[in-house]
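Subject: sequence -> structure tokens, single chain

Hey, anyone have a minute? Need the predicted structure for the following. Not urgent.
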Amino acid sequence: MAGRKVVTIAKSKKFRDNHGKVLLEGLRLIKDALEAGAVPQTLFFSTVGHLKELPEAQIKRASLVKVKFEDIKIWSDLVTPQGLLGIFAKPDCAKMTYPAAQLTNSLPLLLICDNIRDPGNLGTILRSAAGAGCEKVLVTKGCVDPWEPKVLRAGMGAHFRLPILANLDWESVPSNLPAGVQVCVADNKDPGARAKSTSVLREAGGAGSALGNPKAPVKPRPNAAPEHEDEEGAAGIPELATQCYYEDWAQTPVAVVIGGETHGLSVDALDLAASTGGKRLVIPVVPGVDSLNAAIAAAIVLFEGKRQLLQRHRQEDNRQKFPAELG
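Reply:
Had a minute. Here:
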């Protein structure tokens, strides 16, 4: 069937990149997309009832194709298909209208994703970023495509709640950050272990199972054999002050870099942090316990950043209200 072929092709990254389109599935995700201003091109539905729950003005712009629910079950990646799929123009965050509640609760807190290659992790991280009130998310090259169906599914609508800038070169990252930002990295690798491992800064975004001394700075990597001189480069790792995630670090504005599985944080991320006076944040865990999953670590660090920023905001408000008492 032609519809099945279209849906199958629409799931591919090549299709997304070459045609600037994305595939969305499920009532909630499609409704969130429409309300944010995403442009629908084709909607496949099994019953008219599905369409009645969508904003009428927006779906008038799309081609509406009624298909059998059995066909959607074949096309769908969901365990329990809802009978609704849509092909949309790839959203441009500059043209999106994000929910008022999201904008009201937005903080000068940004997230940078570095080498996050697992779709479920990236989707969950985006969901946490939306929940914490991040201003925006930067997804660098080397990460999984945020518009991949599994990422969308794990994101639970986060894609339409805050700006997500994807496929960024590290050279373009600073221009997408606010002036005066401090960039911190969430990391879990014992500096002494760097010379022993080729998979530097494993996915954790923050655990510290190997950190005997979390106060020790990141030291340059000792000279390694040529085959170990990967993206870190032979010049070594920039030196960063290191502290536990619950200690004071969230200044205004602040960005957090979360590294991914196997490849972990890139030297570009560490260079950026060092250039902004940023810190290396660790989440201590009980010795012998493996490092935390990147998505869990991201949630811990982002919500701690939110707590610190809100606390600082309250303190500043109090100083303005009672300058004599506090001065």
